[in-house]
Structures are given as C-alpha cells and as structure tokens.
Amino acid sequence: MNKTKLFTINILIGALAVMAFSGCKKFLDRKPLSSTVNDVKVGELESPTLGLYGAVRNSAAEPYIGDGMQNIPWVGMMGFRSDDAEIVADPGATAWHQTYDNFQYVKDDWGAGMFWDKHYAMINLCNDIIATAAEKNLTDPASMKNVGEAKFWRAYTYFEMVRTFGDIPKIDFRINSPADAQIAKSPASEIYALIIDDLTFAAANLPVAWPDYPGRLTNGAAKTLLAKVNLYQQNWSAALGLCEEVIGSNQYSLVPDYYAIFKTSGELGPESILEIQAEKTAGDANIYWSRFGQCQGIRGAGGTEWDLGWGWNTPTTNLVNSYEAGDSRKDATILYSGQSDGGPATGGYGKTLPPLSNAMYWNKKVYNTYDDYVARGLGTPNNESQNTWVNYRALRYSGVLLMAAEAANELGGTQNNTNAETWVNMIRTRANLPTISYTTQAAMRAEIKKQRRAEFAMEMERFFDLVRWGDADAVLAPLGYQHKNRYYPIPTGALNANPNLVQNPDYP
After folding, report:
1. What are φ and ψ of residue 420, in 5° steps?
2. Domain span at 374
3. pTM metric for this prediction
C-alpha cells in the first residue's frame, strides 16, 4: 500500500476525531508521539475538522453521512445517469434501473431522499466548524487551516447538490433547531457564488502539502476544484489560470501506467490531488470503511470467491465500444464476464471471471479479489467486508490537464492552441495513443470530450459533462432523457420537512 503511514490513534486529538466523528484512518497519520494535547501544535478545531474526512464516506456511525455521499444513492445519482454505466446486475434493482438509467425520476425515491439529507448533514458539520471559528474569533494559523478544510468540504458538497438539483436552500450558518433550516431555495448562481468564495478561502489558507498527513486537503485540491467550478460556469480565463497554477506547482504528475492509479498500491500516488479514503481490516468495527467499492464490486454467487460486491455500477456496451483502438485505458477499466482479467499488465490478477449471467461487464477500477480479503484477515467476503477499503479518486492531475486544455481551447489564440495540444497529447501518450496536432477549435473540442470520457470512465463525471456541454439532450435521448432531467426533482421528504421549499418547476 502507498499509504506512507497509518493513523496513530494514541494521539489524543486523532482519537477524539475517530470517536466523535468517525474520523478517517488511512490519511490521518502522525508519527508516534508521547506528547500531550498541549504539546501538539493544533487549534481547537482540529478534532471536528479531522472528523469531516471520515464523515464524507462513512456509513457505520451517526449521522451516517456516507450513506448518501459514497453509497448506492450517490452512485445512482452520480454514475447511472449516463451512457457509460447502468444498474443491471442485481435482479432486485429493476426500479432503480428505470429511475436512473431510463430517467423515470421518482420524487419519493428513498435514494434521492438520502442523497439530499446526507449532503445537508455534511454541510451542517462544516457550518458548525466555520461558525465556531467566527464566534470564538479563532484566527491563528492552525484554525485558519481548519476553516479552510471545512469550507472546502462545504463547497465540495454544495457542488454535488447544485449540479444535481439546481436551485436549493443556501444554508451557510449553524442550525440550532429544525425551523432554522426551513428556508426557501436560492438561485443556483448564489450557490455557485458561495462555492467560489469557500474555495477561494481554502486555496489561500491551506498548505501546499501536509508532510505528516498524507492525503489531507491542500491548496492544490482547492484550486483544482475551483477550476472545475469555473469550468462549469464557462469562466474560461479563471479556470485556465487556476489549472496553470496547479501545473506550475510541480506537486503532481501523471502515473505512467494508467491501471496503477486504481490499485490499492496506487493510493495517494503522484497523480492524486484528492482521494476520499477508506480502510477495512479485521476487528475495526467498520469505523474506516466506505460502501463506494462494495456497491460496485463484482456480484457473483453468494459464498463463492466472486461474491465481491453488489454490482450496482457496471459499464455499458456503449462505453466499451467508445474507446479508440489501442487505448490502454479500456483494459484498465472494463472486466468481462467469462474472460481473463488481463493479468498484472492491465491491473488484473491473472484470474478468469466466471460466466456471470447478471452482467456482461464490470468496473475494473474497483476490482479486488478474494485473496485481498484473506490478506486482510476478513475471511470469506460478506456484506460487512466486501471491497469496503477502496479509495475514491475524486480529483486527479489528468483532470487538471484536460480542464486546462478545454479552457485554453475555448479562449483560443496561438499560445492557448499550442498549450491545449500539449496537454491533450500528455493524456494520449499515457494511454498509448499517437499524438495529434491542433487543427480547429471544433476538432480540439471534440477530442477533449473524447479524452474526458475515456479518462474518467466509471468515475462519476460523464453525466455532468454531457449536461454542461449541452450534449445530454442528444446523447442520452435514446435512454429516455429529456431536457428537464438535467436536474432531479426535490425529494418528497425534503418538501414535507420544509414548508418554504417548492418543487423544481419541471416537476409539478
């Protein structure tokens, strides 16, 4: 494992974060110390701030935020709604297939309700930290870093919400009673303004790196997410400038072998800008796990070595057929029922999958085998262990290069055109594809779209890319998509809980 270190629980502040907020184990490591809390140079916000890293993905402790931000509801909302992925492996998931794959949205769907509720629960945790800092006038450097982390996570969470629902309530204050949250929706533009303000603050206050905390939020992560937000707003100059700052920081680089990014040994590698981390070992009471890998793992017969997950996010034939000939990313992304996993050269293990009848293809980016369970002392895969240690690669350096290329291409001009060609060819070269030359803006735009699809297949980007490009109406129409489906209707439970909340106008 490229974990560098593991979280040292005998540091009191870390232990408090774990107990109170289900803190993350993998990245929150400090060197073993015998000092007391007073000797550790951190602010009083450190414990709840560390807890945010665990809350965003954990489903085993109150308030179970990970159920809506890493589990099936999140994968359904973020992944199924595209031409790349579908839910067909579980015979009991017919309703989900209709709702998300075929765009027959259901207002009272429990998954959508959980997605909404848990995102606002995460926002509330962030608001508590930010409010405490303001109330106590905590302006020391350690506290400002913690506030930067809280504002990053608030922005991250709101970005998922505004892309999913459009206009939503802007709750940027502490909730002391249920009535405090009963406010009307704010325009999406105001939500984006809050996101940009939060990420700007985070970029200014977070460090370039955390030597003792591998994987903790950095100003590179804040700038990358801020660039992405500006890209969605078509603020091309701002997006390009931020990407160039990340590129110029020399903190990140492409991993030579694409498949290696997604292996356990590849976690927190040189291409990683943000990973939502998880871990699972015998006897850890599920404190550090995530459902992200479990809900997507191969769904084999119960009790067999291929009973590795729920199979709720599988590649489509459309995706399989979309790759350019020779693209090495295809064999690092797609597993085929009844065929070899490709061996170590493509991220496999030298095994042959059984001819599983419930799906033709499987997501190789979350692929682990029975041997991994044995090595972790977990025994036979089961519902409390399946693939629950998989990190979600939320922000990667390849994304910075492709965002920079997209923004540069949209701005135009000789230097921008040259840079766009260079950045795209870095991605193509890593994928073992021949380089291309810039010809026209339209041709480069089409190339960038193709590269984004191949680069981030099964990584929860495709649906939102199609929407922001204005391509969803045409590309997804054969699946039942209509223009109104760019946003999901406000869940019935949220409407019932808030008398000031009104339904999205396309869903009377």
Report:
1. -60, -45
2. 294-390
3. 0.93
Average pLDDT over residues 94-101: 92
Could you tell me how many residues make up the chain? 508
| Nearest Cα to Cα of residue 144 among 153, 135, 134 | 134
Name residue, tokens 């579980």. 90
Residue 41 binned pLDDT confidence (cut-offs 50, 70, 90): low
Sign for the CA dihedral angle at 420, 274, 46, 265 comes to negative
Instruction: Dig out the tokens for 464 from the structure.
Output: 């939102």
Amino acid at 505: P
Q: Is residue 459 part of a domain?
A: no
Residue 396: count other Cβ atoms within 10 Å of its Cβ: 23
The residues near 175 (Cβ < 8 Å, ≥ 6 apart) are 124, 127, 181
Q: State the pLDDT at residue 14.
A: 36
Give the C-alpha separation, 242 to 185, whole Å: 30
Asked if residue 98 lies in contact with residue 104, where contact means CB atoms within 8 angstroms, the answer is yes
In this structure, is residue 155 part of a structural domain? no
- φ, ψ of residue 276 to 5 degrees: the values are -85, 115
**Contact call for residues 364 and 347 (beta carbons, < 8 A):** yes
Q: Which residue has tokens 């419930």?
A: 358
Q: List, for residues 214-265, the tens digit of each pLDDT value.
A: 999 999 999 999 999 999 999 999 999 999 999 999 999 999 999 999 999 9
| Helix residue spans in 325-396 (DSSP H) | 328-333, 370-375
Question: Per residue, what are the HEC states of 402-451?
Answer: HHHHHHHHHHCCHHHHHHHHHHHHHHHHHCCCCCCCCCCHHHHHHHHHHH
- Residue 454: inside a domain: no
Number of domain units in the chain: 1
Residues 128, 129, 132, 136: what is their CA dihedral angle, to the nearest 10 degrees? 180
Asked if the structure places residue 350 within a domain, the reply is yes
- For residue 30, what pLDDT is reported? 33
* Spatial separation of the C-alpha atoms in residues 198 and 152, rounded to whole Å: 6
The answer for residues whose C-beta is within 8 angstroms of residue 77's C-beta and 6 or more apart is: 100, 111, 112, 115, 164, 488
Range 6-31 average pLDDT: 35
pLDDT in tens, 158-212: 999 999 999 999 999 999 999 999 999 999 999 999 999 999 999 999 999 998 8
Q: Which of 451, 8, 78 is nearest to 292 (CA)?
A: 78
List the Cα angle 361/450/241 in 5-degree steps.
125
Amino acid identity of 18? V
Q: Which of 503, 496, 488, 421 is nearest to 111 (CA)?
A: 488
Round to whole Å and give the CA distance between 223 and 213. Answer: 19
